[in-house]
Design goal:
Length: about 270
């Protein structure tokens, strides 16, 4: 029976997902730079810093598949992003290849394409437009995934996660929200579907205000159940309390775009 490694197991998404995945996959190994506070006696944990190749190899040895949620999950200093998301992601794919891991599901992010205006609908063929150093690291991880898929035979699925949570919390999130069970569905496609080589999916539920063409995921059987519109009244009420953000409100990446935005720069046309 296959063993699946989940990196970033102590993080926000990792904490939730490991509860949901353990009912589906009996053999799960967890790793993170720190021990999850809520680790239970039936869970297996290996402490590993992604910036340390020897530790990553120890975490990876003997597993058949990896769900890579580890790394820094928002914008950070160049050194933080470099260590956790650039070097760390390289270590993860390189260790996976050395240890003959069959599949990697990589938690990419909407911030790999955050600088598309909200009025543009994009698919996975649109060139990357990262909105932050963090977004650059996610585009890098997707590119690494392609290298290891086509050169070394890994089956790699990159999920550009929108915003994961029980409900969408503002107007932007009405477009990019993903319900936990829908992310589980996408991960299962990445771990099980026979046709996966190097896929990029949008990690988004069935949102009528969505901006992304997710036909690659639909083709492999994705049937999202979450509908952000059911929560629109509360999300729009929360939005009304937020200050206006002319740059962030124009682009899909929101505040990741307006953060550090240089004075005097024009917004991109459609
Ligand atoms: C992300 O990629 C982050 O990990 C998450 O914390 C949110 O900020 C999310 O994007 C978002 O765009 O809402």
């Amino acid at each position: 029976m296959q063993t699946i490694l989940i990196t970033g197991a102590a993080g926000g998404i990792g904490t939730r997902l490991r509860q949901l995945l353990k009912g589906i996959y009996p053999n799960i190994r967890l790793s993170d730079v720190r021990r999850p506070a809520d680790l239970t006696s039936d869970e297996t944990f290996v402490e590993a810093d992604l910036a340390n190749m020897a530790q990553v190899e120890t975490a990876v040895a003997g597993v058949q598949a990896i769900v890579h949620l580890g790394g820094f999950s928002v914008e950070g200093s160049w050194d933080t992003i470099l260590q956790s998301n650039i070097i760390g992601c390289y270590h993860l794919f390189e260790a996976a290849s050395r240890h003959r891991v069959e599949r990697v599901v990589f938690a990419s992010s909407n911030h790999a394409v955050g600088f598309y205006p909200r009025q543009r609908r994009i698919g996975i063929d649109a060139a990357v437009r990262p909105d932050s150093r963090y977004g650059v690291s996610k585009a890098f991880g997707e590119a690494l995934g392609a290298l290891y898929a086509y050169k070394h035979g890994l089956r790699v699925t990159c999920i550009r996660i929108g915003n994961f949570g029980d409900v969408p919390v503002d107007r932007r999130r009405l477009s990019i929200w993903i319900a936990p069970q829908d992310l589980v569905q996408l991960i299962r496609i990445g771990l099980e579907h026979p046709d996966v080589r190097h896929e990029i999916f949008y990690g988004v539920s069935d949102n009528v205000r969505g901006w992304w063409d997710n036909s690659a995921a639909f083709r492999l059987g994705y049937r999202p159940q979450g509908r952000s519109e059911e929560h629109s009244a509360a999300a729009l009420a929360a939005q009304a309390k937020l200050p206006p953000d002319p740059i962030g409100d124009w682009y899909q990446g929101g505040p990741f775009c307006s953060d550090e935005f240089s004075d005097g720069i024009e917004r991109a046309p459609l």
